[in-house]
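can u do me a favor
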């Protein structure tokens, strides 16, 4: 059986129960705000109802950093903020339950399982090597696109047009996000290992 590993968020988690609970709540809130902020970095394409945003990176990165449970709760809180009327979504309008029933709704709902799976993979140490990080990012993106494209079919019909508008325009950006994650996450773990390695006197 593979031994579960800690995530970045676990490193500073207090041992005392009440402090640990407060720490987790704080991280969940920060995670939701990080995802909301990433949604505001959006490029609206004239030929696609789905904007190019930094959200996919933020969602998967939140999974890696926080682990599965805190990441899912961050996404649930993020959705709650949008449904409650806060302008946190990338779509236009930027708030309201109607966004979830629009063309981008599948992607938004897909954030939750994507963050959960990448969090689980981080627990198994997939974010500690370059190629395993790449694989985890690809898996997370596949989950996002599965939800997003299936829902987009309701608006465009099950045709090649769905791929043209909901997948192909975003592949180059996804590759760049995957490369960035593959550079940042393993490097972060290596730096932590160096800092924790005892030095000879």
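np, heres the sequence
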């Amino acid at each position: 059986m593979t031994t579960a590993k800690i995530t970045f968020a676990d490193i500073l988690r207090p041992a005392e129960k009440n402090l640990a609970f407060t720490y987790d709540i704080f991280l969940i809130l920060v995670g939701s705000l990080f995802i909301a902020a990433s949604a505001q970095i959006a490029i609206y394409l004239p030929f696609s109802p789905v904007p190019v945003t930094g959200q996919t990176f933020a969602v998967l990165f939140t999974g890696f950093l926080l682990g599965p449970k805190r990441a899912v709760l961050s996404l649930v809180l993020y959705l709650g903020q949008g449904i409650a009327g806060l302008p946190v979504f990338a779509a236009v309008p930027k708030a309201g339950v109607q966004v979830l029933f629009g063309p981008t709704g599948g992607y938004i709902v897909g954030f939750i399982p994507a963050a959960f799976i990448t969090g689980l993979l981080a627990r198994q140490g997939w974010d500690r090597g370059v190629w395993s990080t790449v694989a985890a990012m690809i898996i997370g993106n596949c989950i996002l696109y599965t939800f997003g494209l299936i829902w987009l079919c309701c608006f465009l019909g099950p045709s090649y047009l769905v791929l043209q508008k909901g997948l192909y325009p975003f592949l180059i950006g996804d590759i760049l996000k995957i490369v960035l994650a593959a550079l940042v996450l393993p490097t972060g773990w290596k730096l932590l290992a160096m800092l924790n390695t005892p030095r000879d006197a």
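Strands lie at 42-43, 52-53. hope that helps!!
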